[in-house]
Amino acid sequence: METQIFEINEQSLEIAKKYVExxxxxxxxxxxxxxxxxxxxxxxxxxxxxxxxxxxxxxxLIVHVHKDFDINELVYDEQPYAKLLREKFLPGPLTMVxxxxxxxxxxxxxxxxxxxxxxxxxxxxxxxxxxxxxPIAAPSANISKHISPVxxxxxxxxxxxxxxxxxEGGKCQGGIESTVLDVTGxxxxxxxxxxxxxxxxxxxxxxxxxxxxxxxxxxxxxGLKYKHYAPKCKTAIFKANQLDKVKExxxxxxxxxxxxYILCEDIYCSTFAGYNVLNLGKTAEEVASNLxxxxxxxxxxxxIIIAVEPEEKTGVxxxxxxxxSKACANEx
Length: 332
Ligand code: TXA
Ligand code: MG
Known about the structure:
There is one protein chain. The chain is an alpha/beta fold. The chain is built from ten helices and 16 strands. Strands 2, 3, 4, 5, 6, 7, 8, 10, 11 and 12 form a ten-stranded mixed sheet that branches. A four-stranded parallel sheet has the order 13-16-14-15, sandwiched between helices. The chain has a two-stranded parallel sheet with strand order 1-9. The longest helix has 18 residues, at 284-301. The two termini are 39 Å apart. Residues 30, 32-33, 35, 59-62, 95, 97, 109, 112, 114-116, 118, 138-140, 177-178, 180, 191-192, 221-223 line the site of threonylcarbamoyladenylate (TXA).
């Protein structure tokens, strides 16, 4: 199958709609990462997503809807704070997990009784969702476990030959996946950290917990238990007080004829003058926006990416560190 990349316009939206209506998955942009879209009502379409990605069959999918879609068609909206959160943060990078009405394909939620709903803010994405006018089940558009795609080129690299179309939406500005928030209980619970931080949610909902899986417990967001976001090269990660160790590993690789790269925030770049560096930028938002983009750049040229973990751990950095530590788990 040939994979085409089209700008978003009337013509390409017509083509996209036909594919979606015929149970054929396609790539599309959001403000966080690119997604792999399928009609959420169709068993056949939703199952194809797991097949294309090589995704474990117990990891549920997020359903994407346009901003005028009535969520009461799909879920029970029971907690008063959920409305406040929607008004404040949607459309945007916040996925909310509700009790499901069971209207979409059972393969979306893999048998659990909740449904994750997301209203993306990306303009081209909204156009696509509105034009198709169906709830769209979509994971990130990468092969399972690889780094999530933040350009159409990244989607193409992973899924060429497997999908017929990728809608072009430019580089994703958010850069890491949406915050996943359980809104079924009295207090909202962050299941996956992202650009809408726990602190931001608490300031609207009054309180917000961060889910930490206890050993032996059934994981509430199944995606959390899998290795993720990994570049194809070797990786290592060190704390900001271990910069000497970073240099030592770097030199070891360099002297054995390998190509090492250091992945770090802008503040450390002067310490690594003369080294190969992938600069993540300054603010937490910048670092989130650059993270997967730099990992993609790195894996294309490096034998090893040696990451420096940001010192800031709160707010948006919680999500950044979660992704970075999964992507660059120490191997050596
Ligand atoms: O930003 C994003 O969320 C992107 C774009 C494409 O929208 N999508 C994305 O999807 O990251 P995916 O499939 O890579 O991650 C979905 C996450 C997984 O961790 C999954 O376990 C969790 O959402 N999830 C989905 N449905 C759930 C549910 N009903 N209850 C708990 N967690 C759920
Ligand atoms: Mg993913």
